[in-house]
Every structure is written in C-alpha cells, then in structure tokens.
Specification:
The protein is α+β, with helices and mostly antiparallel strands. Helix content is 56%, strand content 15%. This is PP0621 family protein.
Length: 82
C-alpha cells in the first residue's frame, strides 16, 4: 500500500511539473505578444508650456514650437516664469 501511494505521488509530481513547464512556455509566448503591443502603445509625453503638466502628445495642441495640454491653455499662452 505504501509503495502504491509513493508511485501515485510520483505520477502526480511528474504531471504537475510538465503542466508548469507547458504553462510557462505559453505565458512566455503570450508575454512576447503583449510586450510588442505595449511598445506600440507607448506615447511621447510633452510638457504644457502654460501649466507644466505632462500630457500625451496626441491629446495636446501645438502652436508653432510650443505645446499645450488644451486649447484654453494655447489661447492663454505660455506661462511667464520668474
């Protein structure tokens, strides 16, 4: 009886290790795809010339060389710094 229990425990251990290895391989493949998608989503952050808040470049407004976080800040103009 003791030997049967050890044998079943060994089978369960082999099954568990194989399953863990297979899942790690699947996770690596999925992680590689995620990393690729994440890299494409990274966007350049730019500082607003009026308030200094950093916003994604696609969400702001450009006025020549200056960048603003909104149309209201573009109309207000750049903040005068002391």
């Amino acid at each position: 009886m003791r030997n049967l229990l050890i044998f079943l425990l060994a089978l369960w251990g082999i099954w568990w290790i194989r399953r863990a290895i297979r899942r790690a391989g699947e996770g690596r493949a999925a992680g590689g795809e995620k990393a690729g998608k994440t890299r494409r989503r990274v966007e350049h952050m730019v500082e607003c010339a009026h308030c200094g808040v950093h916003v994604p470049e696609s969400e702001g407004v450009r006025d020549g060389e200056r960048f603003f976080c909104s149309e209201a800040h573009r109309l207000a103009g750049p903040r005068k710094r002391d």
